[in-house]
Amino acid sequence: MTNRNNQEANLTRDFEKLDIVFANAGITGRTPIGATDEAVFENVIHINLNGAFFTVNSAAPLLNDNASIIFNGSVHNYLGQAGVAAYATTKGGVVAMARAIAADLAPRNIRVNVVAPGATKTPIWKRGARASISAEQSAKVDDLFSSMVPLGRWAEPEDVAKAVLFLASEDSSYINAVELMVDGGLTGAPFGAPLLRG
Length: 198
Prior knowledge:
Elements: H1 3-14, E1 18-23, H2 38-59, E2 63-72, H3 76-79, H4 85-105, E3 111-117, H5 135-147, H6 157-168, E4 179-182
Parallel strand pairs: 1-2, 2-3, 3-4
Helix pairs in contact: 2-4
């Protein structure tokens, strides 16, 4: 039995039927052009795209009609940040994938959407290079990020959770194949940010 067959068997054992799937697979990884190891690039693609797709693929037979699928995207689909080509590619790919899956599942009235967070206060920000900086330096980085967001703050995990719950609920029963930005206006109104206000 393959790993995917095991995953499907485990889902069937643990859940008879599903109404909501939140596909939240994702890792980052430095992939600067001209200096990226192929294995690093492929690992990001494998986890972020394959992981998201096969989570939903395995769950699809268990979904009730009128269910809701939500993928976790990112503002990196739009920002063009240096050194994160693989990550940005996967988050753009998740949006395209969600639209195609929405078409696949339309006969069952299963909605498929993407929530796209901006910088969110989670433990991931204390890993990697930021793990070794002082509390004062970390506070400066936090302030800089906040000054780049029109609403003047980072997202809290609850901000993203509420958006996911909205897309999972009956309140969004006619919303399908969309990408909901949860970024405080970073991508939609960047010139409203405190840093750029006149």
